[in-house]
Amino acid sequence: MSGIGAALLNSLDIGLLLFIIAVGLNIVFGVLNIINFAHGALYMLGAYLAFTLINIAGMPFWAALILAPIGVAILAVIIDRVLLRFIYSRDVADSLLLTFAILLIINESVRMIWGSGIHVVQPPDLLSGSVQLLGSSVATYSLFVIVIGLLLLAGLWYLFNRTRVGRIMRAAALDRDMAEALCINTRLVVTGVFAFGAWLAAVGGVMAAPMRALDPGMGDKIIIESFIVVVIGGLGSFPGALLGAIILGLIHGFGGRYLPEVNLLLPFVGMALVLLFKPNGMMGKGANA
Amino acid sequence: MKTKVLMAILAVVIAGLIAVPWIASYFYVFIFTEILILGLFAASFNLIFGYTGMLSFGHAAFFGIGAYATALVLIHLEWPFLVCLLVSMGASALLALMIGFLSVRLNEVYFAMLTLAFGMMVFAIAYQWRSVTNGSDGLAGFTLGSFGLGLDLTLANPSVYYHVVLGIVAIAAIVLYLICRSSFGMILKAIRQNPERVSFAGLNVRTYRLVAFVIAGTFAGLAGGLIAPFLRVASPELLHWSMSAEPILMAILGGTGFFLGPFIGSAAFVLLETWITTYTESWMLVLGIILALMVIFFRKGLLGTAIDWWMEVKK
Question: Which CDD domains match (chain A) (predicted)?
């Protein structure tokens, strides 16, 4: 019984972390209509910035959690204004190619700046212990990830459903020309949404840093996981991202414990099954070619 | 006039390619072998990207499977090389059928994500299935025996291997070209331009896209079968998405709107890589910057830009 409880909590922290990252991918897709291949690279950049702020500059974890995502968001504004602005009016293939190029550039830059070796970030003292829960001992940091994940989930829901900024984003996602006709500065919205997506990726990166070792391949792993999440849940769907992330979290949490030999393959099997029976994802619509 | 000039240029290029081992050092024999193999890989990719309009980020899966298939057959069965290549093509065709079946029915964005994800799935299998693939080290230590068809060729000699590659790539390129020129190829082009209209004309777009995907995968598998004896190893790197990036860049570099574009892109890519890696290890960074610049400013590629420029001058 205690094993199942621990696996459940483990699934929940992986799932909520994946949700934070995948929902950023989804929001950017919703408004800009592009899939940002560099989303995982921005997540990795958040983690590495946190490493530098904590281990090199000697800042506390909390400061890094605030500062690193802001830094990545600023970089995203630059990427948007310098590179992406050329391709918004073009075919969707061009945006895929360009964000793929940005992925290559960020990946190699990280390797040049921080090296190919593994880096480790310690969780803050307050969260480094473990507590007894559901009959087994659970790392306090996992609970912290779950709490932050739930807070962000509630915050995002409030943002999209109850605030003016959220309504503007939804309007721009539904029909950008119409939003423009209603005196919404869509260029600002586009840049803002891209930066917000990058901010979410980087928050995920900082949160993941104390749980996982930092290496230049971490961005690749997470972008593929995020793709699986949005394919399972349905591209552009907010509840879909949550559902997909929880399902993938469960696959990891239980698969890692009970089926370690095929652990790496299980997410793909899950994705293939969803594609066979619900090609548009559990909550998505209109993806047919 | 125009076709005559083109034919003359093509004839000179082919004569030059045949003569490479006699006029250049071994170093360039290796370089040109790589250009030809990767050119075929990029041309197979361009059948689905440039012609059909499907941007795949997982084409390395078929290339890598081809390489592993040839390596496995050489190690365990020691069959003639031609048979190895057929096995490679068969294996990649089968894999392309499975991945394609799940991916081609969705739109461009989904297709891009799915091909990347399934490509990495194949990579993960090759990485983990140690008993068959030897994990991260890859398969090495295989030797080429006979060629097949009763021909007596010493394939271990780089010059001989270069000529074999040249012959096979030339035949494969002609077959691919005939496919592109056929009515089937025309339908693929029409699908890129307007899938709705093709479907209103009574054609099953999904089937055509799947067939194109399988053909492209098969030829990528052939290229993979040729690369394994050349590199003397079949390793998981051949399956990684950074390998999928190469045909994308080659096709964009050369020009996706032309049949020979990917081959020219492959030549530019390999020569650039050889030259740049003597200065810096960060080849991927340069690759990313070139890709970004090509996409933003020279979307038609080197060949397309050159032709536009030539037309402008002639006016």
Answer: TM_PBP1_LivH_like (cd06582)
